Amino acid sequence: MKLDIRALGDLLIGDVQADRVVPPTGFTAWLTLFSAGAMAFLAVFALALSLATGRLAERWGDELARTATVRISAPEAQMAAQTTAALRVLETTTGVARARALDDAEQAALLEPWFGPDLPLDQLPIPRLIEVIETGDGFDAEGLRLRLQAEVPGAVLDDHTRWRAPLVQAADRLRLLGWLSLLLIGGATAAMITLAANAALAANAQVIQVLRLVGARDSYIARAFVRRFTLRALGGAAIGTALACLAILALPSTDAVAGGFLTGLGFQGWHRLWPPVVPLLAAVVAFAATRTAAHKTLEEMP
Amino acid sequence: MIELEDVAYNYGGGELLSEVSLSLSPGSFHFLTGPSGAGKTTLLKLCYGALVPTSGQLRLFGQDRREMARDDIATVRRRVGVVHQDCQFLDHLSVEDNIALPLSVSGRDLLAEGANLKELIGWVGLRERAKARPPELSGGERQRAALARAVIMSPDVILADEPTGNVDWEMSQRLLRLLIELNLMGKTILIATHDLALIRAAKAHVQARVLRIAARRLQLAGADL
């Protein structure tokens, strides 16, 4: 539907007399208020989920794209020599910013979640890990793999591509689902408000008849209903948004609980501007839905 | 102002009105009689544009009804005051707000019209009841409120459908006096009624033309009226 700027202006300015011609109470008022509130609540969560997965996808993409690991699996006697040889290869590889072998304590820390804190590393054939940090341009993974194969037989390069790509893809899909949910929520809101507006118009058929009898144009009658429903949707959505924001704020912080994704749902940076937009969008949806319903119904009324 | 020429109106497969010709000229006073169900209300609805004739020509203030858009009808309604037997008010508004409704819907400034509104409410004798809700009014008070609402826009024509149907003789005489006053001010009046005593009482004061609907056709009433 074409957005009528003049109609929006009338909506904002209002007309006290026109507002009063529609009886103030009725179940449609509560239906609109409740559905707008519930949908805004869900929309804020969908928005938070979408933005959080977006951040996650970017972080995983950025962080994993700049790191790689070289694993040295060699007999105990050759481990130190092969590690040194691998480090030498890495130092002379274009695109490698720095490389360093993890010490026993760091390797034990990595294994601790699976094997507990008292792992006897010196008695186990644990491979040595070398952390590789790339420059902005990155390195030629295939070339490095061939060099390592030639000079350090026990070295295996893992540039994380194998498991990074599906993770980033999953996060991107989740973000897309979030936006799709927002669209569905918007559509459901429009449908419910249209139903409520139609019910209100049907329930107020006599009011409409009286208004027409005294010379009211359909645009005047429609405006009275549209303004009422738009303001109700705005109010309900504002309440729903406020409650959703409080619920998100009440989620445990990343400091308190490990595993940041679920606890990182909050809005960050300029994304904090999004929640106030939700009630405004709900009002726009209500405006468009009620206006269409009102004009259609009035057109069909004798 | 309002002209019907050979108008017929059908509804539900049956013909309600046939070959109806009528011209409401400025300042004229008409009564419309006939038995219940004869089509008096239908004819009034045609006169204020609520119905479209099945055949024939209906012109409202010079416009062909068939060519009028909804907004044109709304404009006509501002020039034609209508008083229904069942009055039709917005029950959640006060009597004063109901009477002012035509001003509101036409975008007139209610503050500027405040004095006129008060004068009109006084004219119909409802000053004490201005803040009451319509369901709190008696039948006669409702009819007077409906009349006040019908004339607040200073319309050219006033159509009244059984305006004295629910009131006692004294009140019907009061309403009639108000309608006669309006006619003397130059308004065109058409009253649908089966109250012959009311017609006789009116004819003592104004030159009224009495029309009768019988067998779906409009004709001049006999000399006894």
Structure description:
The complex is a heterodimer of chains A (302) and B (225). Chain A is an alpha+beta fold and 302 residues long. Chain A folds into 2 domains: 5-61 and 165-300, no CATH class; 74-153, no CATH class. Chain A is built from 11 helices and 4 strands, in the order H-H-H-E-H-E-H-E-H-E-H-H-H-H-H. Chain A has a 4-stranded antiparallel beta sheet. In chain A, helix 3 (27-65) crosses helix 9 (218-249). Chain A is rod-shaped and about 100 Å long. Chain B has 225 residues and is of the alpha/beta class. Chain B has a domain at 2-88 and 155-220: Rossmann fold, CATH 3.40.50. Chain B has helices at 40-47, 70-79, 95-105, 114-123, 139-151, 169-184, 196-203, and strands at 2-11, 14-24, 29-33, 55-60, 63-64, 80-83, 157-161, 188-192, 208-214, 217-220. Chain B has a 6-stranded mixed beta sheet, with helices on both faces. In chain B, helix 3 (95-105) packs parallel to helix 5 (139-151). Chain B is globular.
Distance between the termini of chain B: 25 Å
Beta strand count of chain A = 4
Shape label of chain B: globular
Regarding CATH, which class of the domain at 2-88 and 155-220 in chain B?
Answer: Alpha Beta
Radius of gyration of chain A, Cα only, in angstroms?
31 Å
Choose one word for the global shape of chain A: rod-shaped
How many individual helices of chain A? Answer: 11
Pairing-aware structural class of the strands and helices of chain B? alpha/beta
H/E element sequence of chain B: EEEHEEHEHHHEHEHEE
